[in-house]
Amino acid sequence: MNPFTQPLTVSHYLLVGAVLFVTGVICMATKRNALGVLMGIELVLNGANINFVAFGSRFFRSESLGLDGELMALFVIVLAAAEAAVALAIALNFYNNHSTIDVDQADELKG
């Protein structure tokens, strides 16, 4: 039997979500630029969204309403948009004061 003709299951979506999540964590850990760290956070949130949709799908639970995962993903998307707006405002303010957005230069912000 050809493996490319098999239907998609919940485990396929969970695998894609896990790959996005791990890629985002690696991006957050290795990037020194604040914008790179923000991109890693967005990858982590998108991986979580895919997992929410997979767990809320009718293939995983047949007795659900069918919108559980999508509503949680919509909430995470709204949260990510607010986080990105606040983080970009902080990055722009930091750049105006220090002429760099290198995360290591932010040590003088300690109280």
Notes on the structure:
With about 110 residues, this protein is an all-alpha fold. The chain has one domain: Orthogonal Bundle (Helix Hairpins), CATH 1.10.287.3510. Helices cover about 65% and strands about 0% of the residues. The chain has helices spanning about 10-30, 35-55, 70-100. Helix 1 packs antiparallel against helix 2. The mean pLDDT is about 80.
Quick overview of this protein structure:
The chain has 111 residues and is mostly helical.
- Characterize the biggest β-sheet: none
Poorly predicted runs: none
The separation of the N and C termini measures: 63 Å
Give the amount of beta strand, in percent: under 5%
Judging by the overall fold, what is the CATH architecture?
Orthogonal Bundle
Number of strands: 0
Fraction of helical residues: 55-70%
Q: How confident overall, as mean pLDDT?
A: 82
Q: Give the CA-based shape.
A: elongated
The succession of helices and strands, N to C, reads HHH
Radius of gyration: 18 Å
- In CATH's first tier, which class applies? Mainly Alpha
Query: Pairing-aware structural class of the strands and helices?
Result: mainly alpha
Might you state the CATH topology name? Helix Hairpins
User: What number of domains?
Assistant: 1
Tally of contiguous helical segments: 3
How would you summarize the topology of this molecule?
Elements (H helix, E strand, L loop, with lengths): L9 H21 L3 H22 L12 H31 L13
List keywords for this structure.
single chain; 111 residues; mainly alpha; Helix Hairpins; 3 helices; 67% helix; elongated
